[in-house]
Every structure is written in C-alpha cells, then in structure tokens.
C-alpha cells in the first residue's frame, strides 16, 4: 500500500474518546498507537475533564470537539469562540438550530481564529442523529417520517449557511453527496465492523461501504474503545477505509 494512501486512510478515521475519565482517555490514546488521524472529544469526556481532554488529545491527533451546539445564535457564537481558542480542528452544531444559528457558528469560527491566530475549526452540522428511526422522527413532531427527506432538508440549510460539512449516517452518505456535490465534507458515525452489534445506532453500515458511498471521515466509538486491542481494531478500520477508497476510485 503506498504511504500516501495509508495516510489518507488514517486521516479519515476519528476515534470517539467516549470514556468516563481523563486517565482512561490517556490510556486509550496510548493504546491506539497513533493510528487514527483524529480523536473525538464528546459530551461525556468534556463534561468530566473539560479543556484538559482537548489538550491531551491534541498531543496525538487533530481534535474533533463533538458537543453538538444547539442554542440561540449569540450563545452558539460564544461557544464556538471558546472551542476555537482551545485549538480544536472540527466541531459540531445541530443543523436543526436554524440557518441564523449556523451562520453565527461559521462566522464566529472565522473571526475568533483570526483574532487568536488559531486554525479555523471546520464547522459541521448534525442532520439527523444516527440513533433516530422514522418512528422517532414522527414522535418528536418532524413533518416527515422519511429520514432521507429530513437529512436533505438539513443539508440544504448547512449549504446555505456556508458550513464545512455535515454529520450523517453512512446510509445517507450517497444521498448527501448527490445533493451537496463536493460542497460539504461528510462525517459519518454509526460505522460497525462485521459481527459488531448496532448498539443504540439505528442506521449503521461497514467502513468500506461508508467510504464508497462518499463519506470523508468515519467516527467510531465502541467497536474500538471496547476492543481488547484498540490499536488492532483501528488498523482493521484503516484497512477497510483503504478498501473503500480503492473501490471508490475503481
Ligand atoms: O460507539 P459508537 O461508534 O456508536 O459512537 C459513535 C460516536 O459518534 C459517539 O461519540 C456519538 O456521540 C457520535 N455521534 C453519533 N451520531 C451523530 C453524531 C455523533 O453517533 N449524529
């Protein structure tokens, strides 16, 4: 495998540091052997360790801060500014927060990066949580129970707000790519190796299939975090990503 392709595959893998303490995060990071190009800090770890979790992950990889901001535009802008100051490379907002909130997030990322001399983080919007099924959408009052329709609507919002990407299940990656062209990066959680249960994810697929469908970055938690050998599990995923990239360009 040429090294360039190997690097490209690693840069398409984010491991979710979904563990309950900073010491467990440090141990997981060392057990990952620098295989993934990205480490994701979510609500659980950030709630426990805050910016220390970001600092610890930044020593090994780019940091994806997944706090899924969803608030009034002014508050989201402040939250994005704080995240930018901690030098994260990517962060999430909920597309359903509306176009003004999305624009506030994008503008704040640019302005605060310029002010502090930090890298501008990529702002990506969650479309429909991968744990939600059509029945769940109906239950929360979304006008359509077709997940694809709601994802398409959120993609249009993200595009019109000038965001960098969207989070969508691997099953919707092809739909998003068709609708957004190369205008948005596609980040996909809900990836499962063969034989691993879906857990609470309702819309899952394998890593190669997700990449082939157009995903740019895969986010994987439990199948790696709970593996006996996280580095081996991550390497298997990198191999599957390479397979997906090869199929995509075939
Ligand atoms: O353990 P698992 O592989 O299901 O973890 C997926 C990760 O991706 C979790 O950290 C979860 O918070 C995150 N995520 C998700 N669905 C989204 C956005 C983020 O599952 N729409």
Description of the molecule:
The protein is of the alpha/beta class. The protein has one domain: Aldolase class I (TIM Barrel, Alpha-Beta Barrel). It has 12 helices and 8 strands. An 8-stranded parallel barrel has the order 1-2-3-4-5-6-7-8, surrounded by 7 helices. α2 links the parallel β1 (13-16) and β2. It starts with a helix and ends with a helix. It binds cytidine-5'-monophosphate (C5P). Cytidine-5'-monophosphate (C5P) binds at residues 16, 18, 42, 66, 126, 129-130, 167, 189-190, 199, 201, 219-222.
The number of helical segments is: 12
> Approximately how much beta-strand content do the residues carry?
15-25%
Instruction: Give the overall silhouette.
Output: globular
**Superfamily (CATH H level) name:** Aldolase class I
How many strand units? 8
Which architecture does the CATH hierarchy give at level 2?
Answer: Alpha-Beta Barrel
In CATH, the topology is named: TIM Barrel
Ends distance: 16 Å
Q: Biggest sheet: strands side by side, in what order?
A: 1-2-3-4-5-6-7-8
Which class in CATH terms? Answer: Alpha Beta
Low-confidence stretches: none
Structural class, from secondary structure content? alpha/beta
Radius of gyration: 17 Å
Instruction: Determine the fraction of residues in helical runs and give it as a percent range.
Output: 40-55%
Overall pLDDT confidence: 92
The biggest beta sheet, please?
Answer: 8 strands, parallel, barrel
